[in-house]
Design brief:
The protein is built from seven helices and ten strands. It is α+β, with helices and mostly antiparallel strands. The termini are far apart. The relative contact order is 0.08.
Length: 343
Amino acid sequence: MPLLYVILLSALAGCCLTLLLQLLLLYRKKPEPPGGAGGAPGGIVYSRVAPEHGLREYLQGPEPNAGPAAVEPAPSPAPASAAAAPGAEPGTKQPAEPPPAPSSREETCHFLNAIFLFLFRELRDTALVRDWVIKKIKVEFEELLQAKMTGKVLEGLSLREVSLGDVLPVFKSVKLIRPVSCNEEGCPEELGFEVDLEYNGGFHLAIDADLVFGKSAYLFVKISRVMGKLKLVFTRLPFTHWFFSFMDDPVILFEVKSQFEGRPMPQLTSIIVNQFKKVIKRKHTLPNYKIRFKPFFPFQALPADEYEDRDLCIQDFLLTEGRLKVTLIECTRTQITQFDIVL
C-alpha cells in the first residue's frame, strides 16, 4: 500500500512539473530577430558583404565631418621676424596643406615580393610550371611567325632551352587608382592599381630558327632589364575578370645573339629585337590588354566542341526533335557566346 502512494505521488508531481514548463514556454516573451521588427520572415537573417570601416576609408577616402565647424582659436601674435618679412600682410594666416588621402599614397609590396620569391624558388623547376611556360612561349612563336617582317626571313622557331632566371619581377611600389566604383554595400566593383615594376632576373631562351632558304640559325634571347609602370585591374564589369598592362612604353633591354654557320647574323638579331618590342606594345601596353580569368576566376564560356547534349523533359515527358524559342530579357555580368538552342 505505501508503494502505491509513492507511485501516485511521483506521477502527480511529474504532471505538475510538465504543466509548469508548458505554461512558461507559452507565456514567455518572444525574442526579437536581429535587426528589429523589420527582419526577414521565418527567423532567417540575410547578411551582406560589407567592408570594414578602415577598408572603406581606404577605398573611398575619409568621410567629411558632418558636425558643426570647429571654432577657430584666436590668432596668436606673430613673431617679430615674421612681421618684418617682405610681402607678408599682418594678421594673415598661411593655410596648412592637407595631408594626402590614404589611398593616394604609394605603398610598399615587400611582403608580396618575399612570398612570390619563396614560391618561385620552390616551383620554378617543377614540370607543371615549365610545361605552362613552354606552352605560352610556343603560342608567342606562332604569332611571331605570322608577322610580316619575320615571315619573310623565318619559316619556323623551335625552343631548345628555357631558363626562368634567378628572381621574379619586383613590385617597388603600388598605388590605388581613385575614384573606386563601389556598390550599395560599399564593396568595390572595380579595383585598379598603379604598380612600379622592375625586373633584373635574366630570363633567357635558346631557339633554333629555320630560315626561308633552307638553312637554320641559332638564337639566344635574354631579358636583361624591364622597368615601367604597370596597371593592374580587377573588375566585375561587364563580367568578372582581371588584366594587367603597361601604362606607357616600358624600358626593356634585350641581349640577343645569333649565329648562322658559325658566324654572327646582326640582321636577324635586329629583326628579333624589334618584333619582341612590337609584340609588347601591341598586346601588353595600354590601351591594349588581354582579359584574364585564371587563377582567380573560373572561365565560364566553354568552346563549341565541349558543349554536351542533354535530354530536356517537361513534367517527365521527353521533348522530341523540334525548336524551342527563347527570349533573353536581361543578362548581366555573363559571357554569352551562343543564343540559338536546337533541340
